[in-house]
Amino acid sequence: MPGDGSITARLKRTLPVRGPQAPTLSELMRWYCLNTNTHGCRRIVVSRGRLRRLLWILLTLSAVGLILWQCAELLMNYYSASVSVTVQFQKLPFPAVTICNINPYKYSAMKEYLSELDKETKKALETFYGFSEGKSKVRRSVDEWNSTGSNFFQQIPLLKVEDFSRTATDLRSGQKRKIEGSVFHKDSSIVNSGDSNDIIGFQLCDANNSSECALYTFSSGVNAIQEWYKLHYMNIMAQIPLETKEKLSYSADDLLLTCFFDGLSCDKRHFTRFHHPLHGNCYTFNSGENGTILSTSTGGSEYGLQVVLYIDEADYNPFLVTSSGAKIIVHDQNEYPFIEDIGTEIETAAATSIGMHFTRSRKLSKPYSDCTETGADIPVENLYNKSYSLQICLHSCFQKAMVESCGCAQYAQPLPTGAEYCNYKKNPNWMYCYYRLHEKFVKEQLGCQQICKDACSFKEWALTTSIAQWPSTVSEDWMLRVLSWDKGQKLNKKLNKTDLANLMVFYKDLNERFISENPANTLVILLSNFGGQLGLWMSCSVVCVIEIVEVFFIDSLSIVMRRQWQRAKKWWNDRKRGGSGKAPQASDVERQGHDNPVCIDEDLPTFTTALRLPLPQDSPLPRTPPPNYSTLRLETAFTEQLPDTLELGQH
Amino acid sequence: MNLKKYLVRALHRLQKGPGYTYKELLVWYCDNTNTHGPKRIIKEGPKKKLIWFFLTLLFASLVFWQWGILINTYLSYNVTSSLSIGFKTMKFPAVTICNANPFKYSEVKHLLKELDRLIEAALERILQPTPGNSSENTSAPLNLELWNQIPLVLIDEHDKDNPVILDIFETNQTAGGNETCSHQGSDNCTYRNFTSAAQAVTEWYILQSTSILSKVPLHERIRMGYQAEDMILACLYGAEPCNYKNFTQIYHPDHGNCYIFNWGMDEEALNSSNPGAEFGLKLILDISQQDYIPYLSSAAGARLMLHQQKSFPFLKDQGIYAMAGTETSIGVLVDELERMGYPYSDCTMNGSDVPVKNLYSQYNTSYSIQACLRSCFQNHMAEICGCGHYMFPLPEGVNYCNNEDNPGWAYCYSSLRSSIKQRQICIDSCKETCNDTQYKMTISMADWPSEASELGFVLYRNGIIKLNIYFQEYNYRTISESAATTIVWLLSSLGGQFGFWMGGSVLCLIEFGEIIIDSLWITIINVIGWCKGLKQRRARARWWRLTPTWASSTSPLLCPGMRRCPPSPAHPHPTMTLCGCSPSTSLGPTAMQRPSERGVLPAANHHRCAACHLLGKCLLSVKIRRELKALAVLSYD
After folding, report:
1. What's the rounded mean pLDDT across residues B148-158?
2. Helix H or strand E segment including B487
């Protein structure tokens, strides 16, 4: 037939047999199974019997499944970290030590600002608890109150609340009124004594909308009054400029009597002033501000920082602070000292010895854990001029929310640009707003806790605090005398031992513990684990994977395409012939394997060679097909020759 | 003949191997290796061959690169740490108890009498605002000998450039200072500045009293300190009562007599198997505050420290205070760090490899970093100042410093103490121990005895201390190191990498080695053949010149293509000469060029030379390879 010949010729021309040399899919599969490097497939083809073949198919498939499962596990566990702890013995940088008096401002200096408020508070206490003064006096003072019309109580009235009747008694006027709005218990409901009628609280109202009121109640009058006092105090302090406040607070000379570091004397020049909104002037030792950070090369109490602090207890604000002493915090030079949150309190008339142990930790950031290196990726502006920490982020976040919703900034935190501190001359509504916002913040409704992340690396000084009596009874006399002399001429009175606190901060040992996370896996290890799995189950490798891609995707696809193309050609030819009506005989396409003239090439493809080899009866396993290389021919030549040579030897 | 036979057999054995040429060898290797890549190189068409060749190369280089990384990782000796926390029966820590004051004042008064009078007078001078009304002329004359060695001076720094220095016994000024001179002369003096007089006085007193007390023999000093039966009033360990006899006495230079509970030196250390104060150590101590030396220590209380058995207590570093008149409860958590030694981390197991002589070994205690640092300092001090400091144990043949024998010691000591170089040397030479145990303490305090119960107590409230030391609910936290990379890990990772990229194993490496040996073998054959050929050619060239007729007659049999050979048939000749001519290397190419003539060769020589027959066969079979050189070996024998 001329048609057949032309099709074959054209096929050969347009589709030179390359790549998939198997004519059909099943032959390709068979070829693949016989020639692949993986172990299971070969057994499927060479096994005799349906059961055994099925078994091998199952085994191979389960091996594939296992590989996939194990590799998925490996991949999922890729981002895990291992922890290593190293201890280094070395010269250690001494941390910054910030010391504050618990009382923020000298009470004597604050008198002019606070006299009004204090008077009111005193009166409130009198009415409330009927201190020492007689009843008549109280009545009189109440009358006085009513006549003067106290500013403080008008804004935030203190109330005695009867919970069951939902009525509140105004402490000032004695008027009863129905509670409107919501009631917030500042104390936990568990602690709240149910039968107590004397729940004291104060009411905060929205100034723009007087019906919007919230009542804050406390189970203890002390808490209520302190909280109430603090609100007013913050109001007043917010109006005082920073320079004045610094003057009102303690100076370095006031606070520090003696100083000793690493066996050498030091003085106020080694301290940096730092104004804390709630604690007044604090002094940071070794703040690193002048560029040098002191370090210790010997542990022990003699070589640390030793200071004697002068705590002028007589000048304490009676309502604001109820404890006396100093607060200290040990922190890194780059860290902001959150003294109100994590400070350690120092007792007076005692020597407090604080032994430090230094630990540095480092976490891996994304994708291992959700922490931040510098805080630059956190959408909250850092209001503090210090390096990022979670505390800073939370405070900044709250301050931001405060400025947004209340229009002014809270007093205890730094000012964002363009904002100013709240006071009720300008923002009469701020207290209500602040309480509402704080409520939300605590209940995690502001989203700050979600936005803020841990810092990845942090330094920690573990403190061991112990206290000894100081000065001892026998040394008290001369010690106080000499210290009074040290204090200088401006102090006329003799010092009392309850005005003094001795503080020692030192390294217990110079071992720096460094806890760091390291990636448990690297790409190299992952790949070797993959290799181990592939090899264990199927003796497979990347080559096998490439083979699979080659055979199952490229070759199979091209075989299918080729067959389609041939079919289309045939159909076209049939149509062209049309009228002749002669149905083509067994199409060459349908013929199998190497019988197909289409696919027989001059250079014999290996798979056909493999298939041509008949399976010998005696050995069920097919051997590797003899390659058509000269090597083998050479060998044949020599085997033929062997008897010859032997013959030669016999000659 | 036998030898020839043997060699022929050897040749055949060789033929069974990979082949004669490099190419054959490579093809054979590729076809038969178990490594996955090479097999595919020879399987398919030329394009695929090329692709597979490069893929195999790529994978092989990947494998080597990753192996390099893995071996590097292994050699960096990383460690992983594992943390365990919980409660287990543990050795109760050794508890060292000292009084903050080293000696009873009543006992040392006679020694310090002069000094005390001196300091009182000095204080008087300092505190008196106006000079002139001094009262010392009424009292007994002061012994100024002590004073003149280390005088206290006032330094007026109002004028920064010319500070005014005034001896206290002449007149007074504003700031306190403390002068230490070396004995050579007043020009070699340093002033230690203090901003506070209190500190200056304390430091001065400590220096002076150290010098005085160092002259007192040790047993006398022990006698002057607090005795166990006076100090330890009550003791209870768990439910067992104990008393002062359960404590080991040790003399501590800072704190006088110290008593160690459960030191484990003579008897087994005690175990504690229950958490809580009920099962811990309860002590009542009397520190008798009335008997304190007034100028020596200003803080009053007991000094205590928890440490490991058989280790020396360094109270200044790790000790804590317990306040008089309180009950101090100490919950203990044992924080252990177990590290692997060299090469994983730089630590020492028992201090034997540290280049500092451990002076604390005379106490029979184990090595610790504090002991090393102090020994290092004391050794330096003995070397430079010629005497040992009173606070540390003595090296052999050295005495403690005192003002009589070593007048300049205070100067020497203070300059050594503040020397940064000296400290750095010690830090560099000391190593921390591999097993580091820390006792983390949770300290809480309450007033004790309470006001109500105090009636029953006859003791002075400012002098007694109650101590509870017990294990917390979780009493250990152990961080132990293990090697992150072991040899097993390395091997499995290497295998994993090789398997992942190429499906290879150790056997594949052996195969590869075999191939290299084979190719070496081929090279050897070639080289020998070539050398032989060269020799033969030279010999033949010589021979040719001598008997040209013979050569020309024999050569055409074997060398039909040679132009020099005469065309006429040759005469019969001895076999030996035939063999002599055969291995000419130049024959190969000619034979190749004329494959049609190959039939002539055996036919012509069959009856004459069996060896030639063989040669012809050889020629025939290797014609494709152009490898006649191998024959040279054969014909040689």
Report:
1. 68
2. helix B487-502
Strands B464-483 and B326-338, sheet pairing: parallel
The Cα A549–Cα A565 span in angstroms is: 22
Q: Are residues B99 and B226 in contact, defined by beta-carbon separation less than 8 angstroms? A: yes
Strands A213-218, A182-185: pairing is parallel
Chain A residue closest in CA terms to B201: A482
| A80 chain-B contacts, CB cut-off 8 A | none
- Rounded to whole angstroms, the Cα distance separating B193 from B323 reads 31
Neighbours of A373 (CB within 10 A): 14
Q: Which of A87, A301, A542 sits opposite B436 (nearest CB)?
A: A87
HSE (side-chain half, CA atoms, 13 Å) at A144: 11
pLDDT at A593: 44
Q: Which residues contact A253 (CB under 8 A, 6 or more apart)?
A: A268
What pLDDT band is residue B19 in, cutting at 50, 70 and 90?
Answer: low
Quick one: closest CA in A to B439, which residue? A464
Q: Please give the model's pTM, rounded to 2 decimal places.
A: 0.75
Closest CB to A474 among B198, B290, B436 = B290
Q: Which residue of B has its CA nearest to A634?
A: B621
Instruction: Report long-range pairs for A338-347 (Cβ below 8 Å, ≥24 apart).
Output: A338/A391, A339/A98, A339/A100, A339/A276, A339/A279, A339/A282, A340/A276, A340/A278, A340/A279, A340/A412, A341/A391, A343/A100, A344/A463, A344/A465, A345/A102, A346/A309, A346/A501, A346/A503, A347/A467, A347/A501
Give the amino acid at B434. Answer: C
What does the alpha-carbon distance between residue B322 and residue B305 come to, in Å, rounded to a whole number? 10
Residue A66 Ramachandran class (φ > 0 left, ψ -120 to 50 alpha, else beta): alpha
Decide if A467 and B83 are in contact by the 8 Å CB cutoff: no
Beta-carbon separation of B24 and A264 below 8 A: no
Closest CA to B564 of B573, B555, B575, B576: B555
**Residues of chain A falling short of pLDDT 70:** 1-21, 130-157, 159-199, 205-212, 489-493, 579-651
| B443/A479 CB distance under 8 A | no
Smallest CA-to-CA distance from B206 within B318, B316, B314 is with B316
Using a CB-CB cut-off of 8 Å, the residues of chain A touching B47 are 18
User: CB–CB of B570/B556 below 8 Å?
Assistant: yes
Q: How far is CA B402 from CA B221, B413, B568, in A?
A: 16, 12, 123
CB of A323 within 8 Å of a chain B CB? The answer is no
Q: Is the Cα torsion angle A591, A593, A599, A603 positive or negative in sign?
A: negative
| Angle made by CA atoms B183, B187, B188, in degrees to the nearest 5 | 50
Angstroms from A524 CA to nearest CA on chain B: 6
A214 touches chain B (CB under 8 A): no
Q: Cβ distance A631 to B28 under 8 Å? A: yes
d(CA B186, CA B193): 17
DSSP for B349-417 reads SSSTTSSS--GGGGGTPPP-HHHHHHHHHHHHHHHHTSSB-TTSPPPTT--B--TTT-TTHHHHHHHHH
pLDDT in the model for residue A197: 53
pLDDT single digits (tens) B551-599? 444 444 444 444 444 444 444 444 333 333 433 434 334 434 444 444 4
Residue B194: per-residue pLDDT: 78
Q: Locate A76 and state its tokens.
A: 């999922």
Tokens, residue B628: 């006649």
Residues of B (498-557) whose Cβ lies below 8 Å from A = 498-505
R_g over Cα of chain A: 45
| Cα–Cα dist B550/B577, whole Å | 9
> Cα(B409)–Cα(B403) distance, rounded to whole angstroms?
7
CA distances from A99 to A282, A312, A461 (A): 6, 15, 16
